[in-house]
Amino acid sequence: MEKTFIARRFRGFLPVVVDVETGGFDPERDALLEMAAVLLAWSPGRGWHRGDIVTHHIEPFSGANLEEASLQFNKIDPYHPFRMAVPEKKALTEVFKIVSEAVAAQGCTRAILVGHNAAFDLAFVKAAALRLKLRNNPFHQFSTFDTAAIAGVALGQTVLSRAVEAAGIDWNPEEAHSAMYDAEKTAELFCLIVNRWDEYNRGTQGEILS
């Protein structure tokens, strides 16, 4: 199939924004508690913008460590009955399936994780996939687009809330530190910066891509 603009823009990679909330900083020992993945779309009129989102509250895996400091920070009660949490395998299987289908639909070769301090999110995704023996992880195993770095260059801010506000995007601190909210705001931030860059290239070079 002919490559779409999305496939051409990032040399065959499909950017997918991911945020995880966890029970600590160790991806092998600490629980993965929430995961959200935002697909990105592009159109000539709107440029890059948020597409569909898949999100899950996740049950701690058997033997998972839960650091109290992390739970106080993200305000997650892992065993609250109204969390509607699902097993880790169900959550990752669905996310991987949806992302893989999007990769194929766009004629891309692989997904690339977009995240704020993206190495953290990728490490937990990879550790969970390994723990579950899932072989269909659609994400590049080491490359990411890190909005902390990108926003630092483009906006002079590396903290997500400050970068979002510097970009003129609404930020609600009461909703922060949920995987869905942070992923949505990270997606908006990434799209705004890439759109500005693409518009600059269009103005100075006539074309975004060869």
Q: Would you list the SSEs in sequence order as H and E?
A: HEEEHHEHEHHH
Per CATH, the superfamily is Ribonuclease H-like superfamily/Ribonuclease H
Number of domains: 1
Stretches where pLDDT falls below 50 for ≥5 residues? none
Question: What is the CATH T-level topology?
Answer: Nucleotidyltransferase, domain 5
State the major sheet. Answer: 5 strands, mixed
Sheet/helix structural class: alpha/beta
Distance between the termini: 18 Å
Query: What percent of residues adopt helix (DSSP H or I)?
Result: 40-55%
- Give me the CATH architecture, please: 2-Layer Sandwich
Q: Reading side by side through the largest sheet, how are the strands ordered?
A: 3-2-1-4-5
Strand content: 15-25%
Summarize the structure.
This protein is 41% helix and 22% strand. It is an alpha/beta fold. The chain has a five-stranded mixed β-sheet with strand order 3-2-1-4-5, sandwiched between helices.
